[in-house]
Write a structure and sequence with these properties.
This protein has 145 residues and is mainly alpha-helical. The protein is built from 6 helices and no strands.
Amino acid sequence: MEIKAFKECPRFDKCNVNKCPLHTDYEKLQSSEYDKEQKCTMERRVRERIGLKYGLPNQGLTQREISSQKLWDNLPESEKKARIEKLKETSPISRLSKKGDMIAPKKKDNSETHIQNEENGPRNNLAGTNEETNSTKKEKTENGI
């Protein structure tokens, strides 16, 4: 029994993409303008991992991703470095970090909250309250009240 690569996709059960990059005949498949979903929404890394596992010719990548990868691979190293530097300059994350702004502030220490909870003791047992209410209802029903 042959296991299909696309069945290993986490979105397989809900997916409606006809041109699945995890299909062995991806290049031959066609999308229709009437398809509910035109392109795969699964993360590239997940598709790539599955594609490499099953030895797919496109490695689980879409046509656009394959073209982009080929273009990048054919660039001279100096051009690659220049583009990476340009991205670093224009990236909002690097701009904020150069200013000294915190990108993701550290979470506050909740030790005070934990100490306060320990001092207050355990919470009221709501399940016990519900049991009492249910037993009271049962008694009332049995007594005809």
